[in-house]
Design brief:
With 199 residues, the chain is mainly alpha-helical. Helix content is 52%, strand content 11%. Strand 1 and strand 2 form a beta hairpin.
Length: 199
């Protein structure tokens, strides 16, 4: 399995509140995750898979497979993040209806996402729960600590310091406000459509 470093339309836009310099530096981190995931897959391909050599305290297979989850999380989280930047406006149709149904209103969802992002150490996601058929804003403190099984993220908001410190210093809330204004709701809807959500 190999991953490629993708290109994103958001890098061709002027995003109010998120500078090109911040995006370019952020992109280097994403590229690093792609390179490390590929390196780990290469090492796993050549690894001796003898179960007698596996160990939950320390073993090569444990280290590689645990760190692979972090690299893959870094890829997937950032790809959603970069793909959804650069739009503005409000959600429409069934997506808007579901946000209103699950949060009360779009403004209430924004308030909840902002509070979730301020409380998070790394990521905040708007995700669809396939079991409850609902949307919820989740916290994940690391690339590989997505908190709930059987959920599909529709929006990924990076709240690690590297995402906002260059533009906003310690004003995490200001960055989150800027991020919310830059959500491309058509991209979010396209993601929901691709997974058959909200049909």
């Amino acid at each position: 399995m190999k991953f490629d470093v993708k290109k994103f339309k958001s890098f061709e836009m002027n995003l109010d509140g998120i500078s090109k310099k911040a995006l370019e530096e952020h992109y280097k981190l994403y590229s690093g995750y792609v390179n490390k995931a590929n390196e780990i897959f290469d090492k796993l391909a050549g690894l001796d898979k003898d179960p007698a050599k596996a160990n939950p305290t320390f073993s090569d297979i444990r280290v590689l497979k645990v760190e692979l989850t972090r690299a893959l999380g870094g890829i997937k989280n950032h790809e959603i993040y970069f793909e959804q930047l650069g739009g503005g406006g409000d959600p429409a149709g069934k997506l808007a209806d579901m946000i209103n149904a699950n949060f009360g209103s779009l403004d209430d969802w924004k308030k909840d996402l902002k509070a979730t992002g301020v409380a998070a150490r790394g990521w905040a996601w708007l995700a669809y729960d396939w079991d409850t058929k609902t949307l919820f804003n989740y916290i994940g403190d690391e690339q590989n600590t997505y908190p709930v099984w059987n959920c599909t993220p529709l929006i990924a908001m990076d709240v690690f310091e590297h995402a906002y410190f260059m533009d906003w210093g310690t004003n995490k809330g200001g960055y989150i406000d800027a991020f919310i204004k830059q959500i491309n709701w058509q991209a979010v809807q396209a993601r929901a459509d691709a997974y058959g959500i909200l049909r």
